[in-house]
Amino acid sequence: MAAPKKGRSASAQGKPGRSLALILIAIVGLTGGMFATGDTTPRLGIDLAGGTSITLEAKADQGSAINKSNMDTAVDIMNRRVNGLGVSEAEVQTQGNSNIIVNIPKGTNSEEARAQVGTTAKLYFRPVLAQEATGPAASPSPSPSASSSGSPSPSASPSPSASTGEKASSSASPSASASSTTQGRALTDSLRADGTPSPSASASGSPAPSASTPTGTDAAGDTAKLQAAYAALDCSKPEQRAKAGEGTKPADSIVACGEINKVWYKYLLGPAAVDGTEVKKADAVFDTQTAAGWQVTMNFTGGGAKKFADITGKLAQNQQPQNEFGIVLDGEVVSSPYVQSAITGGQAQISGSFTQEEAQGLANMLSYGALPLSFKEQSVTTVTAALGGEQLHAGLLAGAIGLLLVVLYLVAFYRGLSLIALASLLCSAALTYLLMSLLGPAIGFALNLPAVCGAIVAIGITADSFIVYFERIRDEVREGRSLRPAVERAWPRARRTILVSDFVSFLAAAVLFVVTVGKVQGFAFTLGLTTVLDVVVVFFFTKPLMTLVARTKFYGGGHKWSGLDPKGLGAHPPLRRTRRPSGPLAGPVDPKEA
Predict the structure, then answer these.
(1) Nearest CA-CA partner of 188 in 363, 337, 302, 362
(2) C-alpha to C-alpha distance for 257 and 138, rounded to whole angstroms
(3) Chain segment 261-307, per-residue pLDDT in tens
(4) Which helix (H) or strand (E) holds 233?
């Protein structure tokens, strides 16, 4: 039984090149993946790359008070919105009782994230009672001859009453519409979605007395005030647009504004028929079948689907413009398509000339829900890349000094073994760099200053693992063993110590990551990542490399500069035990007895 065990041990020791080849393949594969993603450097956080810091001040809505619960909910929703856009290392946290600080690093989608963080995203579907173009550009114009679905639209007399389909908050002003999607198509004949003037809309756009009575207001005085507000509203003026619909409830009739083709329209809208909270899921999709481009698909809940079918069925029986419903997002009319028949199935679409970022942004806001409070942008501070560059330079300088001190210590105490440790540190550094570069596009990881500190601390943790192994080898050499068996006998004891030490470090990093927020998580994540890599490097690089160099004359012969000189280590010859006889001890034979 002893011979096979010895053979297996020799076979395992004789092929350390397999482990070295495996880690080499891993490095080559990660390098290829890094170049494939196009990001050859790790993404940097706001403190290193620069970016935007936004201070938002909370304003209480009707029925919503400024308290810790609502503020925490707002922070959670904002975090999910910016994470849904793929913004790296965006940081959202409260400051005081009524402020929220949002730090958005400079990079892809950061401007779109800035536009979204404070958007309340309260969506309502309201019946249109009246609509009219306002401002100097409100002169009637003939409607286009074709709808966005490609089918000819009915001829229409010049009318400023348009089915407003522009996204007022976007400079690109994409049109938007809703439609039934029983077959997954963007547009159907059941709902006009071209954003063109309604065929039978009156040129004056003034509401008929019977249709303009707000169904959510019982008092005639309130009705008169609402009609007066509608008559006086000029949506071409930003200050009036900001006040339109302010302080109203879903059950109230409101006045609102919307933009199409750079012309603002005013609306008189009835009480909300469907709430945006009844949108179960929203996604940004690209429709290639009808060339409608990017659009947002909405799936309603069971109750929302029934309400949506009911309101579209009722509106289909009315004349223009009372057969339209307004899609109102944060007080602005995104679209006001008219209905020809009830839309059933619990699905609808908002479509038009959206860009991909705009469609994804709107889908995120609808999916992640409305903020419990309204927010006003109090201040915007830009962190320049020059300041971030100085901090990064300081962090790298600190890392270089720490690495130099570790190398000097290894050279002074371990001499030739310091080359093994330095090669292992370089291997660990390469793996860390490649993984950080890949984690940016994969999960949005961004390297901030605390993360750099975590990487610096990891230098000491990694070097400690090498020292543990080297000391175990030296202990075996001191006992009189040659280097090759000393390397193998020292490994089991060193392995246990290294695993326990790294487990404690990883556990501390995991706990720190869970219980903290913001930049401290970057420190914890980097510390945990480098701890795992330490185990990989020691097992698949340092140990096999040590097995190989033990076969060389410089290390195996115990050169005085190898760090493994038996004389320098105070080694003593192994104790040679005499073999005891198998029988009972016998004294000298007496000649007389013989």
Answers:
(1) 337
(2) 13
(3) 678 889 999 898 888 778 888 888 887 776 667 888 888 888 888 88
(4) none
